[in-house]
Specification:
Radius of gyration: 21 Å
Mean pLDDT: 94
CATH class: Mainly Alpha
Largest sheet: 2 strands, antiparallel
Structural class: mainly alpha
Number of helices: 14
Order of helices and strands: HHEEHHHHHHHEEHHEEHHH
Shape: globular
Strand content: under 5%
Strand order of the largest sheet: 1-2
Distance between the termini: 46 Å
CATH architecture: Alpha/alpha barrel
Number of domains: 1
Number of strands: 6
CATH topology: Glycosyltransferase
Length: 376
């Protein structure tokens, strides 16, 4: 006679509750609706994409913050091909004569605009769309200098641009130089590089390496700074050939970062401003959170991250953003202003107004574009 295994109902119920979700909880339509609302907010606020941006001073609108927004707009356009989105991006490029802020130069921040210029060239290959960004990148490629990227934000601003240009030109020299610049930042800046292999996270620049510590005695890992890196690696891995120099390093570092980040996500779905020290301006922050959601969702969609481990983090992060950060008009709260450390732009609250908000809307659109592909 076979024995019947008796499992108490409470234990059985708990086993179902503890199973991680297998899909994003909301529909594609709902994700797109939320993305559209935030994008409409920015387009209505800036109906002329070429007008200068005025905060504490006046700046041209092809600066890095707006460049980041347009990477998000192009991600939205990839899933919702509205002519107004394409036209808004083209008008932006044309208003600046497809040039970088301050003209042809090797500053990574100015190269961010080139990501969208190249995307628009790939849609309609007019030579003027990439002529200036090619000149700027070629200055670096043809130079022996390797220390241009002394701050980790530069990875997001420049690496996808160089990768896209390398694909257009079908020339491996772009991948070669990009890896040299990346590797110098990773392993040599500040003596032994800005990446802490042990923690899988990055110091923003050499000023934050030990002996610098948070007030609690921990390493200072800035949320948005690591967000720049994580998103940059995802964007590069998305398009660079697998046999290109640097691919395996980018992939290994991306996976290490994902593992580190998923372990320090807040219970409410956000990530702290200071990633490793909740006592050092620990609160909710939307720009870093958006980049982390984007990077993890992209990893699941592309088979690099196991769904069973990361889908819950993506779910919690996206729900935190749409339920607690996005305002009814599409603007986004809990955004840290521009800066280089957790203390900048504080306090970061639902109603606080950062000096710039366009980069966070761009990051949110990127996150949404990958959550969309995971959604029901």
């Amino acid at each position: 006679m076979k024995k019947i295994l008796y499992i108490p109902a409470g234990i059985l119920l708990c086993s179902f509750i503890l199973l991680p979700p297998k899909e994003i909880k909301i529909s594609k339509e709902k994700v797109l609706e939320q993305m559209t609302r935030s994008n409409d907010y920015l387009m209505k606020r800036w109906p002329d994409p070429g007008v200068n941006v005025i905060t504490n001073r006046e700046r041209p609108s092809n600066l890095w913050t707006r460049g980041t927004y347009y990477t998000g707009l192009m991600a939205l356009y990839s899933i919702d091909r509205q002519e107004q989105y394409y036209r808004y991006a083209v008008d932006w490029g044309e208003s600046h004569e497809w040039n970088m802020r301050d003209g042809i130069n090797r500053n990574a921040n100015t190269h961010c605009a080139g990501q969208t210029y190249i995307d628009l060239y790939n849609i309609d290959p007019k030579p003027e769309r990439i002529a200036n960004i090619k000149k700027a990148i070629d200055i670096m490629v043809d130079s022996e200098k390797k220390d241009d990227w002394w701050w980790i934000d530069a990875f997001y601003m420049a690496m996808p641009t160089i990768t896209k240009l390398g694909l257009v030109e079908q020339d491996e020299k772009y991948f070669q130089k990009m890896y040299e610049l990346y590797l110098f930042t990773k392993e040599s800046h500040g003596g032994d590089g800005l990446y802490n292999e042990a923690d899988g996270l990055w110091w923003r620049d050499e000023n934050f390496k030990p002996p610098f510590k948070t007030p609690g005695g921990k390493n200072c890992y800035w949320s948005r700074g690591n967000g720049w890196v994580f998103a940059a690696l995802a964007r590069v891995l998305d398009i660079i050939p697998e046999d290109a120099i640097g691919y395996e390093d980018y992939k290994t570092t991306y996976l290490k970062m994902a593992d580190a980040l998923v372990s320090i996500q807040r219970k409410d779905g956000f990530w702290n401003v200071s990633l490793d020290d909740p006592e050092d301006f620990g609160g909710k922050e939307s720009s870093g959170t958006s980049f982390f959601v984007y990077g993890m969702a992209w990893g699941i969609n592309n088979g690099l991250l196991p769904k069973e481990k990361y889908i819950s983090a993506v779910n919690k992060g996206w729900e935190a953003l749409i339920k607690e950060a996005v305002h009814p008009d599409g603007s986004i709260g809990f955004v840290q202003a521009t800066g280089d450390r957790p203390s900048d732009g504080q306090p970061v609250t639902y109603d606080s107004k950062p000096d710039f908000e366009d980069y966070t809307i761009g990051a949110f659109l990127l996150a949404g574009s990958e959550v969309y592909h995971l959604a029901k």
